[in-house]
Write a structure and sequence with these properties.
Structural class: mainly alpha
Helix content: over 70%
Shape: globular
Number of strands: 0
Length: 437
């Protein structure tokens, strides 16, 4: 039998690198490039502290209930403020400047988190949860406005490419930031007090990066035709009353066809988050270093998965992307019975990261496809309000399951519900196609 020898052709590697470098140089100065840079800073700000939030909460003395609140309360805050906030945003002619302002307010809120470790020990856990929830108010408003703004800045094809590239490069920077933070928290402090000081440094650093994030976002260029429309007389005033728009949103068949299946799946998706946090923090006793390793393995996969999902989205469409990524996320929940230590958990993060890129791409691109140019901001606020109501309710449902049937059984039940939701997405689309033909 002949031996198989694998040889890497240097010419092929060189040509591939040259092609990649040429693609990057062509993007520089464009809106796609600016959006990618903004996305990198957004991910850096959030991944200096968010991956360790549940572990930090436990170090503050937080219980399983408070860990579930950490997932639930931000959704409640966003659900309360999004629609009124969208009504307010409609009155701004310069939506880019308003979005940048809310980004800055959100980042300034990080300074409140830096003060938590110096507060009395008995109030630290709940105050941390409350501060994170309140911070979600300007954060959710800025992200909803950003989604609407993307519909103005990019056309349909360019928007899909921009979202996929932003996701791909974002998932490349996430593990770098998280592994740096995890190594620092694990090996630099000698005492618990020093560890808390390092967390405070991270919160302040995230705030400073957030200022740069807002500056980069402000460099996005509005196309001339869209700018002319925004500056036209009366452009700042909505043609219809905001509440009349809200009333008519669910009458829009195209939007409803995406909204209902997406919310059904989102509930099952959100229900898994607190269970995974409890599994990693309480069951596996994962340290900050292991959370960083989880982010590294997930992010490495996500970087390469971005190319796959970008091509899959272009060839098969958003519906197929949504269904496939939903099925993969459902499958994830059945793997936890085989995860007996943090090392195996790190290996499974490759699988988790691949599915996460697909679902994030499908939901963001799908909702932008389903919303009309007129009143897009109100549609997105309505969609995100429903998503945040799900984000608030689902963790309590998950914790109730946990108390009734145990952690592993709860994870599998949520996995079964995710499969049911994925089937519903597929069936609804199939029935609509049959009815149309």
């Amino acid at each position: 039998m002949k031996k198989f020898h694998f040889r890497l052709n240097p010419a092929v590697v060189k040509a591939g690198f040259r092609s990649f470098r040429h693609g990057i140089s062509r993007m520089r100065g464009t809106n796609v490039w600016t959006f990618i840079m903004y996305g990198l800073l957004f991910d850096m700000v959030n991944n200096l502290w968010r991956p360790f939030a549940a572990r930090f909460l436990e170090r503050l003395g937080g219980t399983e209930f408070e860990i579930s609140l950490l997932s639930a309360l931000p959704g409640l805050v966003a659900a309360i403020v999004l629609l009124p906030g969208a009504v307010l945003f409609r009155k701004f002619t310069n939506k880019k400047r308003a979005t940048a302002a809310f980004i800055l307010i959100s980042r300034a809120s990080l300074l409140a988190l830096a003060f938590v470790p110096i507060l009395p020990a008995e109030v630290r856990p709940m105050l941390f949860v409350i501060f994170v929830a309140i911070m979600n108010c300007p954060d959710s408003l800025s992200q909803t406005s950003l989604q609407s703004f993307l519909g103005t800045v990019f056309n349909g094809n360019e928007r899909g490419q921009a979202i996929a590239l932003r996701t791909k490069f974002g998932h490349a920077i996430i593990p770098v930031v998280t592994i740096f933070a995890g190594l620092a928290i694990t090996f630099i402090p000698n005492t618990e007090e020093q560890r808390m000081i390092l967390y405070q440094i991270f919160f302040v650093s995230a705030f400073l990066l957030g200022i740069v994030e807002a500056i980069i976002f402000n460099r996005l260029k509005v196309p001339e035709e869209a700018a002319n429309l925004a500056e036209a007389p009366g452009a700042g005033e909505p043609e219809k009353h905001s509440f009349a728009v809200i009333k008519n949103i669910l009458k829009d068949k195209k939007f409803r066809a995406f909204f209902i299946p997406a919310i059904c799946f989102a509930f099952t998706w959100h229900a898994g988050w607190p269970l995974m946090n409890i599994f990693q923090v309480m069951h596996l006793r994962a340290s900050e270093m292991w959370f960083a390793i989880f982010a590294l393995t997930s992010g490495m996969t996500a970087f390469f998965a971005g190319t796959f999902w970008q091509r899959f989205l272009r060839k098969r469409g958003n519906h197929a992307t949504f269904v496939l990524s939903a099925v993969l996320l459902a499958s994830n929940m059945f793997t936890f019975q085989f995860i007996i230590n943090v090392q195996i958990m790190a290996l499974f993060q490759f699988f988790f990261g691949f599915a996460m890129v697909g679902i994030n791409t499908a939901i963001l691109n799908g909702v932008l496809e389903a919303t009309p140019d007129e009143n897009r901001l109100m549609y997105l606020a309505f969609f995100n309000t429903a998503m945040n109501i799900s984000l608030f309710i689902a963790p309590f449902f998950a914790v109730a399951l946990f108390s009734w049937v145990g952690l592993l059984n709860a994870l599998m039940i949520v996995g079964g519900l995710r499969f049911s939701a994925a089937l519903f997405i597929w069936l609804r689309h199939r029935l609509r196609k049959t009815a149309a033909s």
